[in-house]
Design goal:
By secondary structure, the chain is an all-beta fold. About 0% of the residues lie in helices and about 65% in strands. It has no helices and 22 strands. The chain has an eleven-stranded mixed beta sheet with strand order 4-5-1-7-9-11-13-15-17-21-19, with no helix packed on it. It has an eleven-stranded mixed beta sheet with strand order 3-6-2-8-10-12-14-16-18-22-20, with no helix packed on it. It is flat. The model has no long low-confidence stretch (mean pLDDT about 90).
């Protein structure tokens, strides 16, 4: 499902259902493939879409918050300004913003998160992590199955590793402290850098 909007909050809710429900109902909607692929457009106002759990979702907006609730499949989100919040995805997540914070509670696959000005919080990621921000901190929880690469110019970096995983550590901060409080090894790699900010890695 693809959602395009200029402004206003976009909420997509994954539920135990087989149909789609869009509010308000005067939005432009183009439905293909028996309701499984939908393009919803809105110039303004808030948009709420209830979809079957596990559906793949793509959202593009200029100015407005994006909230993904429930459990969905792969997720792609891009916006210029506004907060992005995701409950749970069973697959990959690709999230890009110019000026906005990014928060993902659980990601079942790879997670790519990029914002120029805003904080990034990735609660628990099953796959590889790539998280970049210019001004803002980064917090990542990883299952330790794939590599973690995080970078910020002005912000603190915290990485939490699942118990029993031993990462190879590569930390670099020009004007901040770096420390690792977990067992080190070769299970996967954590690469983190910050210009002005501390970096810490610890067991969850």
């Amino acid at each position: 499902m693809r959602v395009l909007t200029v402004s206003g909050k976009v909420t997509v809710i994954g539920e135990d259902r087989s149909d789609l429900d869009i509010e308000p109902d005067d939005r432009y909607v183009d439905t293909v493939d028996d309701g499984r692929v939908v393009e919803a457009r809105a110039r303004s106002k808030n948009l709420t879409i209830r979809v079957p759990a596990g559906m793949n979702v793509s959202v593009g907006t200029i100015s407005g918050d994006v909230h993904i609730e429930g459990t969905l499949g792969s997720i792609k989100i891009s916006n210029v300004s506004g907060k992005i919040e995701i409950d749970r995805t069973t697959s990959d997540a690709d999230i890009r913003s110019i000026s906005g914070s990014i928060a993902v509670s659980q990601c079942g696959g790879r997670c790519y998160a990029n914002t120029k000005s805003g904080r990034i919080e990735l609660g628990h990621v099953a796959g590889a992590v790539n998280a970049h921000t210019m001004s803002g901190g980064i917090e990542v929880g990883t299952a330790g199955a794939d590599d973690v690469n995080v970078k910020t110019i002005s912000g603190r970096v915290s990485v939490y590793v699942d118990p029993g995983r031993a990462p190879r550590i590569r930390l670099r901060s020009i004007s901040g402290k770096t420390r690792c409080e977990c067992m080190q090894g070769t299970d996967f790699e954590i690469k983190a850098s910050s210009i002005s900010g501390s970096i810490e890695v610890q067991e969850r």
